[in-house]
Amino acid sequence: MTTTLNELFAVDRLFDEDELAIAGTVRDYVKRDIAPSLAQWYEEGQIPARELARGLGELGVLGMHLDGYGCAGTSAKAYGLACLELEAADSGLRSLVSVQGSLAMFAIWRWGSEEQKQEWLPRMAAGEAIGCFGLTEPDYGSNPGGMRTRARRDGDDWILTGNKMWITNGSVADVAVVWAQTGEQGDGSGVRGFVVPTDTPGFSAPAIKHKMSLRASVTSELVLDGVRLPASAMLPEAQGLRGPLSCLNEARFGIVFGAMGAARDCLETAIAYAGDRDIFDRPLSSFQLTQAKFADMALEYGKGVLLAAQLGGLKDAGALAPEQVSLGKLNNVREAIKIARNCRTVLGAAGITLEFPLMRHANNLESVLTYEGTSEVHQLIIGQALTGQAAYR
Ligand code: FAD
Fold this sequence. Notes:
By secondary structure, the protein is an alpha+beta fold.
């Protein structure tokens, strides 16, 4: 008689029936349609992004927590659970969905004009159009306020010039939400967002190769070489860094849940393996040292899910502060990567291959640790909340 991780923490009691039903649907879909191909995609560093996006659109997870324009309007907790199930398969899959729904679609939904919403959101929700979100630059990652990408006026038009780096979905996107400096302040206050169809002359998005992490995800550079856009391409409601930071907050929320999905998959794999593997004539799972590992990791998993559910409840109540999202992102990614590495030790040599998901998750989580605010940036956000002192510079 054994207890599952979720039973141990009575996880089901943290969510309502609809939320659990959505999680179950996503879990079944991922298991059936995606999981069998993941190791191959990861090894080849290629994903069938269009096909995947259409399938995920049919499943209803793209922008699922947004209202209207073909989006499902689910609770934040349901969205979080969907992220958890997607990342239990692969962080790259969850990244595709996060960037589409929480970054590109959210930017248009929250800050866009009615015309921009009508044009893009229904197609993006259906997975017929893929979006990306260009904030980071080669020289400005944790400090996007210094960005060099410039938008200058030419009559009524805008001309965009600059480079964005490490952009998820970039090479496969139909539309890019690009953040650019319109003034000379250099402090972020002149930052505006632009909705850029990727077939606009001057736009290109070369893929970044040789990644050791998130190999089942497209990561690209965006080159903006005098991209001419009509005045209507600017997101009218977003001024300054508040615009992009609001989107990051959405995506970070999904990661709080998602990271626990990767952790759960690692733990379930390691527990099952240890039960089957005989060492010194007994199952590996029967040794005290192994059980101590599992107990400690299960505890961190459970604490992470409890934290995620608490933040989800706050988000659904409209009461979630950015520093609370930082608590979740910092803790859950940090613990998930420890769990992935520790579970890998349980499998010994077998843990290093793609036959098992441990190293794939651990390597993926290196990116997750870095994007959407590094651990250090989240420590600084929490530190500022606790002390009232900003220590970024
Ligand atoms: P840096 O900012 O150069 O940081 C280097 C180190 O310095 C880090 O450890 C950091 O924590 C530390 N540091 C920074 N500031 C401080 C400080 N004040 N005190 C102490 N330490 C500090 N960006 C997008 O815009 N869109 C995307 O879709 C996107 N997708 C990504 C996908 C992948 C696979 C990856 C890896 C990145 C992606 N990013 C994306 C970029 C990501 O957001 C940045 O990598 C991240 O913000 C960190 O920036 P950086 O890599 O330039 O590191």
